[in-house]
Design goal:
alpha/beta
């Protein structure tokens, strides 16, 4: 069962400096708790600032097995020696990213490439393009943060919500491709078991791993494994 923490320091309290400090502390806590992969998803940072943050995160988690991936910025991932890159629909195709990594002297087996997917057809495309894993989202309905409100249908109570595609999408996608599918979007300890039962290789989330007691969260999730 893969546990995948997606970072977002803007959800943390404090000034920019305090948020950076808290994020690095949380990344270390995630590694200590046994989270498998951490995606550094600080999209507002410049390449230089992101690289500095990634280098510090790598330095702090280096003795542990947790892998750090960089969101979208393949150049930063390669420059800092991250374990991989996570791509969105606006980025390079997985195969192109792997080719660039290979030209940088990194073996295909030594660099993870993940892709964001929002439908079964996108998962199939990701598999065909050479991705190692797909984040399939949103599985469950979720209330969106203000910066993502353009994705949403406005709810009756005025909250911006994105309807979930359901666990059946995981089941169908996992039957048709061989790559790992991680469930994302509204995932909690209470419903993560449904994702695993449907064929997910693991779960991905921001708040699930960025809030609360991480040791308890990871322990509860691991207990769901068959």
């Amino acid at each position: 069962m893969l546990l995948y923490y997606i970072t977002d320091r803007t959800q943390l309290a404090g000034t920019d400096v305090e948020r950076r400090t808290r994020l690095l502390e949380r990344i270390v806590q995630a590694a200590e708790a046994g989270v498998d992969w951490i995606q550094l998803r600080e999209k507002d940072l410049s390449a230089r600032s992101l690289a500095r943050l990634a280098e510090e995160a790598l330095r702090r988690i280096e003795p542990r097995r947790t892998k750090l991936l960089i969101n979208s910025r393949l150049d930063v991932a390669l420059a800092v020696g991250a374990a991989g890159v996570h791509l969105t629909s606006n980025d390079l195709a997985a195969g192109q990213a792997r080719s660039v990594a290979a030209h940088s002297g990194i073996a295909a087996s030594g660099f993870l490439v993940g892709v964001s997917c929002h439908s079964i057809s996108e998962v199939r495309l990701a598999a065909g393009s050479g991705a190692d894993f797909a984040l399939l989202a949103p599985i469950f309905e979720k209330v969106l943060m203000p910066q993502t409100v353009t994705w949403a249908a406005q709810g009756a109570a005025g909250n911006a919500k994105l309807p979930g595609i359901g666990c059946e999408a995981i089941r169908e996608a996992s039957r048709s491709v061989s790559l790992s599918i991680l469930a994302l979007g509204g995932v909690t300890v209470a419903n993560a078991g449904l994702c695993l039962a449907a064929g997910a290789a693991g779960v991905a989330a921001i708040r699930l791993f960025q809030e609360g007691d991480l040791m308890d969260t990871v322990r509860s999730l691991r207990a769901l494994q068959p």
